[in-house]
């Protein structure tokens, strides 16, 4: 055996990779080492060449075997045993390594060429020709239009259930003279009159022929008169029947029966959703068959099994990665929390409200199931006739009362002392009061008769009853309005609407200072010294104080005792303030939203905002505090509805709901007695959402 040593004397003899077992059976000779191809030492099945070691005195013979499959390799024993001479070892052997031909599995030629390539000029010329052909393709011989066959869509069958068609057979016996008289009734009537005249004249002239003619005419006239009497009798009978049917349809009892039947149908249709709204258990329809019920149960069980299986797999993966020493702590039961969400129950909409913008909403103070909704555009260019509707939970498909308005409705509110009175403010500055108890749609009071009526859009209305500290005359309920003409007005409802101004909102002067070496700024000429009022809200405990939001982005704190100056001015918004709202629990805090995409939380003793919430880059139209929690409030911007919970996060809302991209959310309102939210949009829909898994905090301080 040969051994190879390096310069340091270490044994570096390479070990063979293959050891032949003399006791093993000789495998089948492969095609690679066929007898016809294995005569030379450099066959295609393997490659062998000598290596000359120059570092030591020993030499070793080495062979390299290559093959595609080791099971097909066979080593010939006669080659292993042969001895190489010194000449063979010193002989120079040339080895050539080559690559096989490349096999392309996927060849996608590029559609982009470099401007420095050889074909760049040709490609640019071809593209130019194609552009010219596209421009001049009408009437060009090089452009041809061809038709192609497409796959036909699968046919769909749709079944519709309709009322049963009732068919009746009616028959009338008619004689030949009835047919004759019916077709010639227009000719017989004037002829009978003329013949009667001729008959009278013929009696004065005694002529036999004329007597015979008169006798024939009189007989024919008798037949015609009988037919006319029968037709008149049938007409009277038909008229009586028609009057009787009209009397039934217009009767009060029939109208009341229809009203009750409508209520029953609405209750059957919306029972599950109304039960969810009132937080009652949902009743199962007894008409559902046992097969359908079994199918529903099977589907629920399958979903539960799939959920349990996925949960079990996750637990097994966690156990495989966690140290067993701490598994005892993790095996304790943990309550699974479900994230809060909004589920839509139904929408208040009908053909009259489609395409109209929902501008305001208000609950009735006595009946919590009665909702008033105002429809009117906010922009001057989109103005058209407005609408005020009273919706009931008992019929979500059609309003109970509909009041047509000459201008767009911008604000409305129900009275507290007289819940049947609904005040409506319009874009032209008019305020009207309707009696919803009456079936007539005529306004009982209108501010057009007052000389102090608003000259700009009425952006907000609210009925207010002053505290007991005021005089007896001031304890009566007042209607407060704010308008774009810069006036906050108090209206007294009597035989007519009389008003006095609580505050004339003055514009704030510009506080920009001149820079060094800058010329003195010229004073701006104002069209009006009053700032447009956008919103207001009275303090929940002391109604003598109130907040006013303006178009300048300022919020003023005012008092009913002073009508010339503000108590405080809060600066922070860069656009018009659309809504201000005191917190009903923590009465030192209030919220405001603006066109500058932000919502701000204020303390009445600080002129700068405490927190600013800005989750989107759209206008925030409306906000409202939750009536059940000090931390929760809702906001609507043009793209989505947001529910914020300050006890959970002050950075992101806990619930977001995006609507139809074609519609913009405009107003929001919490339900009084349930965990539901109402949202109005620019398409005339008022959507009712259920707040799910939103826990209210017991704290009363922010």
Helix content: 10-25%
The Cα radius of gyration reads: 48 Å
Alpha-beta content class: alpha+beta
What is the strand arrangement across the widest sheet? 1-28-27-26
Which fold name corresponds to the CATH topology of the domain at 352-467 and 476-503? Methylamine Dehydrogenase, Chain H
Q: What distance lies between the first and last C-alpha atoms, to the nearest angstrom?
A: 94 Å
Average predicted confidence as pLDDT:
77
Tally of separate helices: 9
The top level CATH class name of the domain at 352-467 and 476-503: Mainly Beta
Report on the structure:
This protein is an alpha+beta fold. It has a domain at 352-467 and 476-503: Methylamine Dehydrogenase, Chain H (7 Propeller). The protein has helices spanning 77-81, 86-90, 120-135, 176-183, 185-204, 208-249, 252-277, 290-321, 327-330, and strands spanning 341-348, 358-363, 370-375, 386-392, 401-405, 409-414, 421-426, 431-435, 445-446, 458-465, 477-483, 487-493, 497-504, 533-538, 545-550, 554-559, 568-571, 577-582, 589-594, 599-603, 611-613, 620-625, 632-637, 640-645, 655-658, 665-670, 676-681, 686-692. The strands form seven sheets. The protein has a four-stranded antiparallel beta sheet with strand order 1-28-27-26, covered by helices on one side. Strands 2-3-4-5 form a four-stranded antiparallel beta sheet, with no helix packed on it. Strands 6-7-8-9 form a four-stranded antiparallel beta sheet, with no helix packed on it. A hairpin with a 2-residue loop joins β23 (632-637) and β24. The two termini are 94 Å apart. Mean pLDDT is 77; it is low at 28-81, 199-221 and 289-296. GO terms for molecular function: dynein heavy chain binding; dynein light chain binding.
